[in-house]
Design a protein that fits this description.
Blueprint lengths: L1 E7 L3 H11 L4 E8 L5 E2 L2 E2 L8 E4 L18 E5 L6 H18 L3 E4 L4 H9 L5 E6 L10 H15 L4 E4 L6 H6 L6 E4 L21 E5 L8 H10 L8 E5 L16 E4 L5 H10 L3 E3 L8 H8 L4 E4 L4 H4 L6 E4 L4 H13 L1 H15 L6 H17 L2
Parallel strand pairs: 1-2, 1-7, 2-6, 7-8, 8-9, 9-10, 11-12, 12-13, 14-15, 15-16
Antiparallel strand pairs: 3-4, 5-6
């Protein structure tokens, strides 16, 4: 089976784990789009971007050599877009990708995002080629502008007219497909996220912050960092010498404000993989105070390093962080509920250790491992598509 996998740099934390297993079961070629705003995103951190618009082998792309112990770089190519998405660049890059499709002749083309590039690509490839798209979020958790909302909606519909096999990573928002894809014929498959095992490749460094709880990831309004800060200030963390570390780039620049609390440490930038692994491993536990969500790579990064979590009851998070087994689930957008969860976890370190043991036991092998997830996708998704 030959798979051409076309993805986007922000999903690289997922793809590194998944592609590593998929390559054991199939012939895989990977194409990854890199834009100026995504050259440091997911598991990929690139300090510079070539000015050339087009496809560049990953073996020749500056900065990708640091991932040669995780990836088969000769199987990867970078769709390099140093300009940004517009009609011209999307058309040019779609032609480049279409040439790879023609030369490689895959059995399945699997894409993980949609936009103008995919719309143009669908016009340039064999209409009978088997295709599938992973949809991470059926609707945006941010509040895009009216223009952006309609742009996304049009691109989604035009792409899914051709890529009408859909892979969802949870069932939580599947009911929204019918609402957003009316009058389009499609077929849905389901899978899930495994632990982001690439983080285990990095040595754990020195703990610079003592006892702390951790929030990490890109910071946007829907992630509830404002709720977390208020809950932390009300909690008993101060009396126990426990700090709050908030690690991640404030994408819109309007979530984090001047911080006058010495017990709240803000690292407002992209967090490199080695630093992230150290931050997670040395924390007491991780907090996801989200106001809305579908699924989250933050849970899978934490699970990879056996770290318990507090999550809010939104989206698929309660299914990823089972209450009383891998951590605590609390009500969303509720300072008091989050404060109570933080107090419980800090007051019961023996319970936190029990959560960690459960994570180690349940995610190394079995249905939650990438080995099993990948086998299921090949057997129940790719093979089904090829046979129908």
């Amino acid at each position: 089976m030959k798979i051409l996998y076309f993805t986007n740099a922000p999903f690289s934390d997922l793809e590194i784990s998944y592609i590593g297993e998929l390559e054991k079961l199939a012939d895989v070629k990977v194409i990854m789009l890199v834009l100026p705003q995504t050259k440091k995103s997911g598991a990929i951190s690139l300090d510079c971007q070539p000015k050339e618009l087009g496809l560049i082998p990953a073996t020749k792309y500056p900065g990708m050599e640091k991932y040669e112990n995780m990836l088969k770089l000769d199987h990867w190519s970078i769709v390099n877009n140093p300009i940004g998405s517009n009609f011209k660049t999307s058309w040019v890059l779609a032609k480049k990708v279409a040439e790879v499709v023609k030369d490689y002749r895959p059995d399945i083309l699997h894409i993980t995002f949609y936009g103008l590039l995919q719309v143009f690509l669908s016009q340039q490839i064999d209409k009978d080629l088997k295709k599938i798209v992973t949809i991470h979020d059926i609707v945006s958790h941010d509040k895009p502008s009216v223009i952006r909302h309609w742009y996304d909606k049009i691109c989604r519909r035009l792409t899914l007219k051709h890529f009408n096999n859909i892979l969802l990573l949870s069932r939580v928002d599947s009911h929204l497909l019918e609402k957003n894809l009316s009058r389009i014929t499609y077929r849905v498959f389901y899978s899930k996220l495994g632990p982001y095992t690439y983080l285990r490749n990095y040595p754990i460094g020195h703990n610079s912050y003592g006892k702390y709880i951790l929030f990490f990831g890109n910071i946007r309004p829907y992630k509830g960092v404002d709720i977390l800060i208020d809950a932390f200030k009300k909690s008993n963390c101060n009396s126990q010498g426990v700090k709050l570390v908030i690690a991640g780039k404030d994408i819109d620049g309007n979530v984090l404000h001047d911080n006058q609390d010495k017990d709240i440490i803000i690292i407002n930038r992209y967090i490199e993989n080695d630093e992230l692994a150290t931050l997670i491993a040395n924390s007491l536990f991780v907090v996801l105070p989200y106001k809305s969500a579908t699924q989250s790579g933050v849970t899978k990064s934490s699970i990879a390093l056996d770290k318990p979590m507090i999550c809010t009851k939104v989206g698929n998070l309660p299914n990823e962080v089972i209450d009383g087994k891998y951590g605590k689930i609390v009500a969303p957008n509720d300072v008091d509920a989050l404060c109570a969860g933080i107090n419980y976890m800090t007051d019961h370190p023996e319970q936190v250790e029990e959560f960690a043991k459960n994570i180690r036991s349940d995610f190394e092998t079995g249905s939650n491992s990438w080995v099993k997830i990948t086998e299921d996708i090949v057997t129940n998704v790719y093979t089904t598509i090829l046979n129908n």
